[in-house]
Amino acid sequence: MKEVVVKLLKYVKFGILLCVCCAIPHTRGPIIEHDANQDIGWSGEDTLNVWGRGVYAFHPLEEEITFDVPMVRNDRVEFFVQYYQNEAYQSYATYLKRSVKYIEPMRDIFKKHDLPQDLVYLALIESGYNPFAYSRAHAMGPWQFLAGTARIYGLSRNKWVDERRDPVKSTEAAARYLKDLYEIFEDWYLVLAAYNTGQSRVLTAMKEAQSRDYWALDLPTQTEDYVPRFLAATIIAKNPEQYGFDIAYEEPFEHEVMLVPGKTDLKTTAACLGCEVDLLRRLNPELKHLVTPPNASSYPLRIPRGSKEIFDLCCEKLGEPNRGVCRPQG
Prior knowledge:
Blueprint: H1 2-22, H2 75-85, H3 89-99, H4 103-112, H5 122-127, H6 147-152, H7 167-185, H8 188-197, H9 199-209, H10 221-237, E1 255-260, H11 266-273, H12 277-283, E2 299-304, H13 308-314, E3 327-328
Antiparallel strand pairs: 1-2, 1-3
Helix pairs in contact: 2-10, 4-7, 7-8, 8-9, 8-10, 11-12
């Protein structure tokens, strides 16, 4: 009997090794990457209907990882864990690499609003932390706000700026929106579903199913995949090495805010500061042109940290006779 048990254990071990080998990343997934100069992008609406293919992942053990959103690891979640490890490996790795530029300020905002800080990973599946992400439904920014919702939550959108792109202001808006949804649903899975498809559709599905169980609702395919994708993305993001991701994270944006005149040219400012204009564009993604709004008496511009001393020397080149406007914010 003992010999039989030993043999069985060997086969089980071999089977687990096969599962692990199958999870080795190999191809780029269908998620589209975007850059600061493109007006096209990807959002959750473009996801494939990948649930139901009968592919399941080996369930790794967590190493002292905690979550502040309810965590379920059913087969639908495990499918997306494997999806990120394989088909979408390169895209997901790029998003993780970029995340460090934005994630800590996002955490601080959610903490200020008494929200689960793991909700910062919602921006991972919405936009890959790309402020310039733009969907076919005309959703914009790291939190993929539609124009109507952005207006409700105080994000400006005009010829010169689109604050849906601003990583700070849009995260503030997302925090207030998620908090409002939680007051309605009192369940984070239902909140995420409503964030994706709208609260009316979720309320209708709840009424039809006579249930508050997200997993039991008849929702659009994209929304049925939305929570499993979020949970899988969160699981990996909090312990990427365990899932085969060796990430060389980008450096966080180190910046300070200065008031500059309206109609300040970013190319001139970059030349004064000795930095690339692309850096100023990425520090100020809400600007739709390489100039601050002409109708603004002053504008809070993010510049590289440590540029304060040379910034005053730049004021003379900015075309603003009132040099008092060139001063730190606050």
